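Hey everyone, long-time lurker, first post.

I ran two proteins through the pipeline my lab uses and got sequence/structure pairs for each. Pasting them in order. The first:
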Amino acid sequence: MEGCLGSQEETGLVWIRLGGASTVTIRGYVGDVVTLTCKYDAQYYGPLSVCWGRGHIPNSGCDNEVIRTEGVKVTHSASVRYHLQGDLRAGDVSLTIIQAQMKDSGIYGCRVDIPGWFNDQKHHLALDIQPVPPDPPTVAIREISARSISVWWSAGFDGNTPITGYHLECKSQTDSWVDAVRGSNVLPWERETAINDLRPFSTYNIRMFTKNNMGLSKPSNVLTITTKDAAPDGPPQDVKLQALSSHSIKITWRAPELSLQNGLIRGYQLRYSEYSPHERLPVRVVHLMDGAESFTMNNLQEATEYSVTLHTINNAGLGPSSQELVCSTLTNDDQQHMTTTQATTEVQTEHSTSTIATTTSSTETWLLVTDSPTQGQRVDDFSTASPLSNSTTDPVLSKKLGTEEQSGHLVAILVPALVVGLLVVMAIIWQFRRTTFKKGNWNILWKNNDFLSFGDSEPAL
């Protein structure tokens, strides 16, 4: 008679010792069809009665009987999941369990009733049914805000084992799933949850797992989500004020820290007014386009303090104000002082160069004085207009330049005056000759020595 030596392909075989006899352990998964093999020699004995039971086989019969045959006919089955699908006429009385469950695990005994005293054949098998990992859920977005994301999901196959919960993971798009992952466990009956405390205008990846007694499923589909904008959390940086004149002040700044911008910067709001610690004065508001990092406030009052604040603007709104700064416009005396001459000196490798800038309220002159060991001193004048006054940090050079400048002005005045004078003299002489001579004409001739002379001629009679 043959023993219990195998099962179908979806089960595993393990030999163990049970009560001094060898026993086969068959492994399967929840939902599988598993077969516990038991055979005898029907050609020798003919059809015999067989029973299958849970646990060890007693001295007679089967405890916790699950199925019994009388010859080739099944006379009892404890469940519709228990079948004898082998050829009973050939002695194949293997037990087949359909839709295996975790509770099916345990020891099974096969008893073949052979006529005679103590001739029955007994065979023991161990069945180990393991849970199947569940299928992952299908995840979708419910709602997105600046600092939270709401997701929902539908459950997949549970692996024929009750789902014990879900595991949700969320990370920044720039991170890996190994590092910097936020995880949370969700109850098995829930189908929606929210992820909070996120950063505005940031991109995240989200995935989910199903849990049962077997463990975690494979990860679900990955969602890539960008949170919405929020008003900036930080003010502009490095805000500075500079008085340019008696009627203007310049403000400069840098954008807020990137982590505090909470969206794309669309511009800035500048607010300024005359400063008064005791009363509120009218505030002027200027909206500046994105990319600007400076602005000049004009048409201000002379020698007046102004209070200035700056806000960052994005699609979600206005950010916090920068620290209030106070700056005073200049007086006319201060402005006149600022327009005095400034000089800088640059030293080069082969010769020295002095650059003198002369600035007045209406003109600006640049004089480049070059001292070269081979070419001597050279003065180049880069005037933007005729200056009304001149000032320099070099007295000798200033005197020289002043003399040359005065000579140039004198020539420019005398030449037109001489031309006008000559024209007047010529007109007087011409009129005099007409009244003196009744007949004849006169000519003005140019001599080779460049002096003018006059000649008369009488007309022919």
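...and the second, right after it:
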Amino acid sequence: MTKAKKNSHESNINRELQKVANNGKILIGARETVKALEGNEAKLVIYASNCPKELKADFRERCNGTDTLIYEYPANSAELGLACGKPFTIASLCVVDVGGSEILRLLPSITYAKK
């Protein structure tokens, strides 16, 4: 993927994240994400590039064998927080309701659940 295409893709994801945060339902933080995964509520798990390895592995394991998509956000937790319109860092979140967003369509097919 060229740098221009990559930046365009990231800005599209950021725009859709804002839509989800404003019109849908997201749960912020590892504990909330794990609860949603255990309750089979999460449609998508997103974690920042600097999210601890242990959490990344836990999310991948919990999503394996389910329909839940998992995506590593290409920037750090501060950037993920800003992309969601929040004034704080977000290492991980899950989407429970997309709220009319096209985020599930835009994400690359990095889905451990379907391997």
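Reply from user beta_strand_b:
Welcome! Quick read of the second one: The longest strand covers residues 92-97. Residues 3-114 form a domain with the 60s Ribosomal Protein L30; Chain: A; fold (CATH 3.30.1330.30).
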